[in-house]
Amino acid sequence: MTRPRRAAFAAAALVVAALLAALGVWQLERREWKHALVAAVDARIHAAPVPAPPPAAWRGIDAAHDAYRRVTATGRFRHDRETLVQAVTDRGAGYWVMTPLETPGFTLLVNRGFVPRERRDPATRAAGNTAGPTTVTGLLRVTEPGGGFLRANDPAANRWYSRDVAAIAAARGLGRTAPYFVDADAAPNPGGLPVGGLTVVKFPDNHLVYALTWFALMLLALFFAWRLWRPGADASNMPDE
Description:
Elements (H helix, E strand, L loop, with lengths): L2 H44 L3 E2 L11 H4 L3 E8 L5 E7 L2 E12 L2 E11 L17 E9 L22 H7 L5 E8 L22 H23 L12
Parallel strand pairs: 1-2, 5-7
Antiparallel strand pairs: 2-4, 2-6, 3-4, 4-5, 6-7
Helix pairs in contact: 1-4
């Protein structure tokens, strides 16, 4: 291989090494961001509950600042307008019971918890349908529009794979509805169903593994550049074209 070609390949390897180093640093920065996010969410989960955001605050709600915030609301459940959303939990396959809570000024969708498939029919768990004013405490969750990973919600057929607040509100003919929903806490319901408090709060953190991978590839690129341009490297000991 001629010296100019070796120089060109070595320069290209250095550029690749720089890009790989940048990717590694970016992953470390993402790791720091993820740790800060986890700390913020943990603080929200364990904070004292605050009133569920009213209509005046809806525009400012976003996942970064409000997801998993502990909130509380008082109203009356409309059990006749509940929606079952397919769910898979540690308790097996079944449904989330999404029930409108009519509060002063707006309606709030509450995920009251999990019921197994054999208890889909509300008549089989009528004891849990509390009447009269009810106070709910739980975690604020952002809406899940569209459906699941592979299946779209089908309101016409009453098949739901995600907790899409706007679509559920439209399908059930609800009035002014909050753009978020609330996962009820583990406070037991009469009769034992639905089972609340099953929110899974988990953030994948593979950034360190990714960073080490990028840095390892960077070292390989640097080694390749050194092999091409090390002292003594010449056409006699480098592969020809």
